[in-house]
Design brief:
Layout (H helix, E strand, L loop, with lengths): L2 H4 L15 H16 L4 H8 L3 H13 L3 E6 L8 E6 L1 H5 L5 H16 L1 H19 L9 H14 L4 E6 L2 E6 L5 H6 L2 H14 L3 E5 L8 E5 L2
Antiparallel strand pairs: 1-2, 3-4, 4-6, 5-6
Amino acid sequence: MTLASAYNLPPSTTSAGPSLPAPERTKTRLLELIKRHGPQTAQDLAYKLEVSVPAARRHLCDLQEGGLIESRTERPGGRGRPQHVFALTDQGEASFPKTYSGLCVDVLRHVQHLFGQGAVMQVFDARSAEIAARLQTELSPASPLPVRVQIFVRVLCEMGFDAVLEQEGDTWLVSKRNCPNLTVARQFQELCASELTMYQTLLGVPMTRETRIACGQSTCLYRIGP
């Protein structure tokens, strides 16, 4: 999520440009001030924005209801009287631009350069093994396959893949309509290969992948069954 999408604003709002309505500009500036200077009191924020304290509190209340900031009590410098300050939540922090995917690609390229092609696959397999260990309880082999497949699709959705399930005779079709790891998947096919192996291990049945978003197709389509 970006600062713009937090309030369904156009991308230009992140720079608080003149095209924005004043309330949205103020909210964006409040988030930026808290990001730059850390937890702030309403009085400090009002002073920096050159608005009244009640006006600042109204905008802070909106941001708090939107889950972007939280109110807490702190002692300045660890001493003095406690005061109420506003700080970014994880959701608010995520609204600022991040370069995690680019960093991940750079790190994997260095791993490949230093330790060889196989090292990248080892990294992805270790990640897959860790994920599989967390999911083995939910995807118990003792459960019927239809139950395991439905749980599997739910887990994929929780991981950001926007998965849907269809049945075609004795075969299950799982479509992932989003790839949260697309930047990495386009650079390293090992990621998709490792995930496929993990899915087969978790479900305990044959599975084939027929399409890939990383190859320009609209979904990653998996066929599960005999």
